[in-house]
Design goal:
The chain is of the alpha+beta class. It folds into 2 domains: about 140 residues, endopeptidase fold (from Nostoc punctiforme), CATH 3.90.1720; about 100 residues, no CATH class. The chain has 7 helices and 11 strands. The longest helix has 13 residues. It holds the Pfam family ELLD.
């Protein structure tokens, strides 16, 4: 079985920043939008989605032994992880480094507990993309091969609209460039799902970028990227207007931005 480190990063990013996935150790394998996981079940699930053989790994305590027997190296946690490294504390926690000083992880339920909460992400942070921190990690697990980088100067049309995509969008729309869509409402998973924008802050008065986009597509310029704004964006990009800013919409956006326009 041949795995892809970039796909691992993409899948962890999807589950932690796009899907409506919550934290609950008692329902840790209910990994779906609206379901639940814990830190190790999510990493193991994403590894399998990325094509990696995880052997009999089931939790943090047996993850290292299974992966080091299958092409991964156990390295010192020196504060300089590489993209796709698994950040492991053998007893308590595991996350994946996704680049740009950030990691993807399942953290805690909406009440600050390990179990007993509601399915789905009630806070926008039960699963999350966060700045890298020293847990402390016992090691980094690193695969022996890496994916090729995207061509210089071009966005990778990977369907995951991260900081580079958002920054390019901000440049083209003429708004301040920081790679972040700010001031959004936490989606409830029923009215609409999280847009596939991977660098988002919640609360406040909306985003200057989104207001510029809304004006361009003829939506109400309130700075909040809801279903109508997403639908109008999809029509502009020529994708199915299903009000869900998923990978197909993100990919169309990246291809459009690579042509210097929106």
């Amino acid at each position: 079985m041949t795995g892809s480190v970039q796909t691992l990063v993409n899948r962890m990013t999807y589950w932690c920043a796009v899907a409506y996935l919550g934290y609950d150790q008692s329902r840790r394998w209910d990994i779906r939008s609206g379901g639940s996981c814990d830190c190790s079940s999510l990493v193991i699930h994403a590894l399998r989605e990325a094509g990696f053989d995880t052997g009999t790994a089931t939790y943090t305590g047996n993850l290292s032994a299974n992966l080091t027997a299958r092409g991964w190296r156990r390295l010192p946690a020196d504060g300089h992880p590489q993209v796709g490294d698994i950040l492991l504390n053998d007893v308590h926690h595991v996350a994946v480094y996704v680049g740009g000083g950030r990691l993807a992880q399942a953290s805690i339920d909406e009440r600050g507990r390990a179990s007993g909460g509601r399915p789905g992400d009630q806070t926008g942070h039960e699963t999350n993309i966060s700045p890298y921190y020293s847990y402390p990690w016992n090691c980094y697990l690193r695969y022996t091969s890496t994916s090729a980088p995207a061509p210089s100067g071009k966005l990778a049309a990977d369907g995951l609209a991260g900081r580079a995509t958002i920054s390019r969008w901000q440049e083209i729309m003429g708004t301040p460039v920081d790679g972040v869509v700010s001031g959004q409402v936490i989606p409830d998973g029923r009215t609409y799902g999280r847009p596939n924008l991977l660098s988002v802050t919640y609360g406040g008065q909306g985003s200057a970028l989104i207001r510029a986009v809304q004006r361009a597509v003829g939506a109400n310029p309130d700075g909040l990227y809801g279903p109508d704004s997403i639908r109008r964006t999809q029509i502009r990009l020529g994708v199915t207007p299903d009000c869900w800013f998923g990978p197909a919409t993100a990919r169309a956006l990246q291809n459009t931005l690579n042509n210097g326009r929106f």
